Amino acid sequence: MSRQAPPSVPARGRPRDPRTRAAILVAARGLLERGGLTAVTIEAIAQKAGVSRPTIYRYWPNAPAVAMAAFLESTGAIDATRSPRTALAALRAQLHALADAFAAPAGRSVAAMVAAAQSETELAKAFRNEFIARNRDATRALLERCIADRAIAPPADMEVTLDLVFGPLFYRLLMGHAPITRGFVDRLLDVVIHSPG
């Protein structure tokens, strides 16, 4: 069964404005790029975005969740899945975008702090819910498109296949023994997915 990311905190009062959400993410991304995850606080985001603290809490439950949402959007990984290219090319582009993101300074900062975090901290939960779950869902949709297009053979188990795609990426992320590169992504996909017939 498809695993969805937990919903954000329900909105109260006025409907959410996508421009406000975008301004909050731009502010969080700027703080993340300049000062790392520790710089992304609700107070700093509110001041930089020109919004109130309660406004931010209408979209996200805490600062780590905002930071992870901003980091996810900065990778371009989800945007890659919406491109007009073939599903297989879009899948490769999505994982290339992740590799590029973790090679950048902000990505290295995120990786270091996630690796050091305990599993039940707000940071670890935000990473799972805002980053891993959304990327996993996007990859599932692309794999299903690849199967429909007969670009790949249907996997015996979709959930295990998703684990096989993301497991090595996050193992490298958390252990730090080797970089996540586009070349590694390409080799990984060659091993995990197979041509039809």
Relevant terms:
about 200 residues, 10 helices, about 70% helix, mainly alpha, disordered N terminus, Tetracycline Repressor, domain 2
What does this structure look like?
The model is unreliable at 1-11 (pLDDT under 50). The chain contains 10 helices and no strands. It has a domain at 64-192: Tetracycline Repressor, domain 2 (Orthogonal Bundle), CATH 1.10.357.10. The chain has 197 residues and is mostly helical. The longest helix is centred in the C-terminal third of the chain and has 27 residues, at 122-148.
% residues in beta strands: under 5%
Instruction: Give the CA-based shape.
Output: globular
Cα separation of the termini: 26 Å
Q: Report the CATH architecture of the domain at 64-192.
A: Orthogonal Bundle
Task: Summarize the entry for a quick read.
This protein is mostly helical.
Present the secondary structure layout.
Elements: H1 18-35, H2 42-49, H3 53-57, H4 63-75, H5 77-80, H6 87-103, H7 105-116, H8 122-148, H9 158-175, H10 182-192
Helix pairs in contact: 1-2, 1-4, 4-8, 6-8, 6-10, 8-9, 9-10
